[in-house]
Amino acid sequence: MRIIGISGSQRQASTNTALLVALSEFFPVGVQYRLYDGIGKLPIFNPDMEGEQMPEPVKMFAHQIERADGLIVASPEYVHGIPGGLKNALDWLVSRPEIVHKPILLLHASHRGDLALGALSDVMATLSSRFSTDPILRVPLIGRSPEQVRSLTTSGEYKKRLVATLNSFLVDIVSS
């Protein structure tokens, strides 16, 4: 099984990226998990560039999505919405088949951000027939360093919630 993690943040000290990195410790043996880090390298979406004109970074991104059995997306809220880089990446997938039937799990590293989560849920429901808002896991990590995120998520209540959510997501993938 292959799972791709995608962070909606390009910040070097992003709590959402740190949450995705911390999640890597909880995958069972046999599950390949990797973070896609090329969102910032994708050109701005242009429908005229689809098909034979498609830029190479977009082809590589779509290929990674195609090979994945599921996606885990963690994203902050910027100006009451989805960060531009993440929205741009998703726009490149809108008329492509790679994401249509992919299970998608949303994570959010803040107690705030309802507007972005709502918008991102709408976009994901448009892109994938397998997207469900159950579960969306929120872990209030705002303002923490990547080291603090790792420490908080590898023990106690946060670890239990992450493991339970991840296991539920993986069971959904296997049972489909």
CATH architecture: 3-Layer(aba) Sandwich
Main sheet record:
5 strands, parallel
Beta-strand level of the residues, as a percent range? 5-15%
Total of DSSP H or I helical runs spanning 4+ residues: 6
CATH topology call: Rossmann fold
The total count of strands amounts to: 5
CATH class: Alpha Beta
Shape: globular
**What is the arithmetic mean of pLDDT?**
93
Q: What distance separates the N and C termini?
A: 13 Å
Sheet with most strands: strand arrangement = 2-1-3-4-5
Radius of gyration: 15 Å
Which spans of ≥5 residues are poorly predicted at pLDDT below 50?
Answer: none
Alpha-beta classification: alpha/beta
Helicity level: 40-55%
CATH superfamily: Flavodoxin domain
What order do the helices and strands follow? EHEHEHEHEHH
Q: Tell me the count of domains.
A: 1
Verbal overview:
The chain has helices at residues 15-23, 56-67, 84-93, 114-127, 146-153, 156-175; strands at 2-7, 32-36, 70-74, 104-108, 136-138. The protein has a single domain, classed as Flavodoxin domain (Rossmann fold, 3-Layer(aba) Sandwich), CATH 3.40.50. A 5-stranded parallel β-sheet has the order 2-1-3-4-5, with helices on both faces. It has 6 helices and 5 strands; from the N terminus they run βαβαβαβαβαα. The two termini are 13 Å apart. By secondary structure, the protein is an alpha/beta fold.
